[in-house]
Amino acid sequence: MTDARRYTVAEVDALVPELARRFETVMGLRTQLKALYARLEGGGNPPGQTLPDGVPADVIRDRAVFDGMAEALRDEVNAIAETGCVIRDIEIGLVDWLGAADDGHDVWLCWRYGERTLGWFHELDTGFSGRKPIDELRRRGAR
What we know:
Layout: H1 9-42, H2 57-81, E1 86-89, E2 94-100, E3 106-112, E4 120-123, E5 132-133, H3 134-140
Antiparallel strand pairs: 1-2, 2-3, 3-4, 4-5
Helix pairs in contact: 1-2
């Protein structure tokens, strides 16, 4: 990852309000999409399949709504990714940014939807379960 951009704690922390808003939208869209998918599937017309001739107007409308919400969800996910993060788990809103400590080693700056600030990091070879408080990274002299 020698050419990859490294983010500072301050840079990521400044992104948290935008990410919180975007993930709130993502979570709402996912909930609505799941319910609409279940309704369409229950009626024999799940998204992804061609609608047969003569389907009721409400099914056509629901499929159009589903497609529009799915596109809005893709747009939100793309906007989240454009912040420079790696999306680890869209269902819980877990993302990481590559960061570097002053000693030169890389770490993941880790944020999860619902957290008010960037409060965690972990080593490159550990995941969410290996998160440590960001204050520990600051004590090491993070950039």
